[in-house]
Design brief:
Elements: H1 2-23, H2 37-64, H3 67-99, H4 107-128, H5 132-146, H6 149-159, H7 179-218
Helix pairs in contact: 1-7, 2-3, 2-5, 2-7, 3-4, 3-5, 3-7, 4-5, 4-6
Length: 224
């Protein structure tokens, strides 16, 4: 069953990328360069979701001290780093022909880079603290504080003068994007969210099995 779900998610990702490259029309201003949007935007939206899950799971862990919530947060944090990294890479590729540079210390870019560093630190913190309960507690606190960067990233283009364009979809006004482009973007967002859900579920299971193995290894009846 799990393999079939994974294949379905993979097919959805391929369909979304293919639609972005071949079916969606080129942008009237940026031309074909704009097609990277179909990866860049879903990546950051999925990262937001991953951090949202981590935020809720971290609060739940601090309140209940249930290791299951910590595993949810850990799985989501690992994937958040992947999607934030993908956002930065695709943004740089998009920025080179658009702005003439791979990187600039723009408010949106800088806050996103900080976001990436915070959650790299989150993963590092988990790996260097040997006591599992302390590691989970410290990581939960950092995960909650790091999530405060999400509104800064999202609203940075409104709060400060930036090179980065304003939000195209998540804004108060109705999106003015071409309907076909909007449909392809929605397809890719769904594909990325499905990939996150599938991978998070698999990672959670692996973390659960690892925890069970460690408990069994500490049992006096354990035999190597």
């Amino acid at each position: 069953m799990s393999r079939a779900v994974g294949l379905g998610v993979g097919a959805l990702l391929v369909a979304g990328v293919a639609a972005g490259l071949g079916w969606a029309p080129p942008d009237a201003v940026q031309g074909n360069v704009q097609r990277i949007m179909y990866i860049h935007v879903p990546a950051i939206l999925t990262a937001y979701l991953a951090i949202g899950v981590l935020f809720v799971a971290s609060i739940a862990y601090l309140r209940r001290r249930d290791p299951a919530w910590d595993r949810v947060a850990a799985a989501s944090g690992e994937l958040a780093v992947c999607f934030i990294g993908l956002t930065l890479v695709t943004g740089s590729i998009w920025g080179k022909p658009t702005w003439g540079t791979w990187w600039t210390w723009d408010a949106r870019l800088t806050s996103t880079a900080l976001f990436f560093v915070i959650y790299l630190g989150y993963l590092l913190l988990r790996s260097v603290v040997e006591d599992p309960e302390r590691a989970a507690t410290y990581a939960a606190v950092l995960g909650i504080l790091g999530a405060l960067d999400v509104p800064i990233i999202h609203f940075s283009v409104q709060w400060w003068r930036t090179l980065h364009q304003p939000a195209t979809v998540l804004r108060p006004e109705k999106p003015t994007m071409d309907p076909t482009m909007l449909a392809v973007l929605a397809l890719n967002v769904v594909a990325f969210l499905a990939a996150y859900a599938y991978l998070a579920g698999r990672r959670y299971r692996l973390l659960t099995l690892r925890g069970q193995a460690l408990i069994a290894a500490e049992s006096p009846d354990f035999k190597a």
